[in-house]
Amino acid sequence: MIRRALREFIIYCFHVASIIMRQHPHLKGRENLRSIPSPYIVSPTHDSYYEIPSLSRVYYSLKPRPDFVVLAKEDFLSGCYLARNFGKGNLILKCLFTLLDKTALPFIIFKIMRLTTIHRPFIDACAGRRDELRSEIGGQIDRARESISKGLSTLIFPEGTTWGFGGLKKIRSAVYQLVDNTYRSARRKVHVIPINVKVDRLVKGGKDIFINVGRPVFLRCSKEEFNERLGAMLRQLHTITFSQIASCYLRRLAERHRGAREGLVLARDRFASAMERITREIGEMVRRNALPGFDMALLNRDYLLKKANGFIKYCVKNRYLRPPVSGGKSGLFHLDIESVLGSYSDREYRKRNPIGFHANELLSLGEAGILNLFDAHLDAQ
After folding, report:
1. Is the separation of the CB atoms in 210 and 198 below 8 Å?
2. Cα separation, 99 vs 113, whole angstroms
3. How far apart are the C-alpha atoms of 251 and 166, rounded to whole Å?
4. What is the C-alpha separation between 71 and 147, in angstroms, rounded?
5. Hey, is 335 helix, strand or coil?
6. Are 173 and 141 spatial neighbours (Cβ–Cβ below 8 Å)?
7. Based on CB atoms within 10 Å of each CB, which residue in 149, 245, 269, 301 is the most buried?
8. H or E element: which one contains 277?
């Protein structure tokens, strides 16, 4: 009872943190979080730690609320988690987080949340230690399976990492192993709740967070088929945001004018008009089921223009767009083609080139058809 009361308080703190951080969660599929056969695995996508506080809405919508464990990377229980992950590049923050780590409060919170860890990096990145890592990870999975066999539900991020180039990352085998091992050893069916989380991140101001919950499923098949089907479900729950659409537009503009002698000038009103036309077309494709979910509020012109202005402010702040040096006209910007097309490793890409990352999120839904859509609008201009 004490653990449950403390856990409820911690999750409430996450809820408060999401409000302080000006997050605006939109939970779709709430009906899929009721009367689920227990135990089950909550399986959300994972692009960053930023959206974690908003996942408290998922917990509050579960009926009944479960007792659960969380499967996470091993440095959560290292004793220096905050300083290592959130103190980079700022000496003051690093000192503050180091002091907080030394109080052991983060460690205590993680233990109250029944957090259990799994080794990273992944086996396929460590050719020289594969057998050792398989044995270590197998033991960690067995401990999680024992918890599930006792009736505890589990939260697992199936991609296992925030690194990537945009779009759904490779589905790791932890979810499959828990479902399969629990059924083999205890004959208990463990349902999986797929959840796709997308943040409309590249708009200055408060951030809309779209949490799309799928129907709970029990899968009994080979590992390859299991991961493929889970990946397909997560892709189908994708929400197209304004950041994805606008980033893809800038990306395509930059690709078509790469190597141009004269700088490319982007007009605010022309950009807004393009966003209106492209958004309507994408909305129609969603209606025909040619694309998955969509922020339907973008069909409201005032909402769309507010998003467009917020996106331009973000791009100016982050040097993707620069005001013209001469002319004095307002609403005109130079597009920094090199920044938009910047290439980095999967570990750095989301942070170093968020425009490219969000463009890839949209293109991952069907590159050929989406590029044709954008090219048609650019040719018309």
Report:
1. yes
2. 22
3. 13
4. 11
5. strand
6. no
7. 245
8. helix 268-287
Distance CA 123, CA 227 (A): 17
Give, as one character, the DSSP assignment of residue 318.
T
The span from the CA of 62 to the CA of 170, in Å, is 27
Roughly how many angstroms between the first and final C-alpha of the chain, as a whole number?
A: 64
CA distance 302 to 308: 10
Alpha-carbon distance values, 52 to 34, 170, 184, 211 (Å): 21, 20, 32, 11
- Would you give the distance in Å from CA 53 to the centre of its chain? 13
Domain annotation for the chain: domains and CATH numbers: 2-67+119-237 (3.40.1130.10), 240-380 (1.10.10)
Token duo for residue 177: 């192993």
∠ CA 106-108-111, rounded to 5°: 110
pLDDT (tens, 9 = 90+) of the chain, 381 residues, equals: 888 899 999 999 999 999 999 999 999 999 999 988 888 999 999 998 889 999 999 999 998 888 888 887 777 777 787 777 766 667 787 888 888 888 888 888 888 888 877 665 554 555 555 565 555 556 666 777 777 777 788 899 999 888 899 999 999 988 999 899 888 888 889 999 999 999 999 999 899 999 999 999 999 999 999 999 999 999 999 999 999 999 999 999 999 988 765 668 899 999 999 999 999 999 999 999 999 999 999 999 999 999 999 999 999 999 999 887 665 467 899 999 999 999 999 989 999 999 999 999 999 999 999 999 999 998 887
